[in-house]
Amino acid sequence: MRPISLRFEVMSLAVINEHRDLEPWYRAFNDRAWGPARVCTAAAAHHGPAALAELFPALGRRIHDAGDKDFDAVIPAALAEVGLPVELARVAYRDDVDERMRTSTARAQQLVGEGLGTPTIAVDDVAFFGPVLTSIPRGDEAVRVFEGARLLAGCRAFTELKRARVDELSFA
């Protein structure tokens, strides 16, 4: 709808929450998140940010849209879909990219502040947590949402806007 320069970087909830006391179900969720985050980190490191911009949505479609939680199947399928080496899936079980992932996450937290999560969006040198949406806006509505977020980001006094989730998540 309008040209923008978009760049994905890894910000990992697993990293943010690794030393926090969490409810058991959320600890399990975070512990499982290391694998896909490691693969995304390695893809960006070895194939550039454009690879991450393709891989992240491919993983999201499988995990969130299709509800597939078998990461041993999801990760190689997403890598193959976007033309990345399927061997990158092995990184999910190694910690050699963890320091790079921690650095990327720390960079995002420096922009938006401690205690906030994902998504972190930086627009015109201003960063904020969100927007969190229950569905993906399209067309003119997407432009309005983007411009609204950009307008709020430009107001230094703005810190938060939140309401209860009323709709189920839809990634269609």
From TrEMBL:
Domain of life per record: Bacteria
Organism expressing this protein natively: Micromonospora peucetia
| Name under which the protein is recorded | Disulfide bond formation protein DsbA
| Taxonomic placement | Bacteria, Bacillati, Actinomycetota, Actinomycetes, Micromonosporales
- Matching InterPro entries: Rv2466c-like (IPR053977), Thioredoxin-like_sf (IPR036249)
Q: Name one Pfam family in it.
A: Rv2466c-like
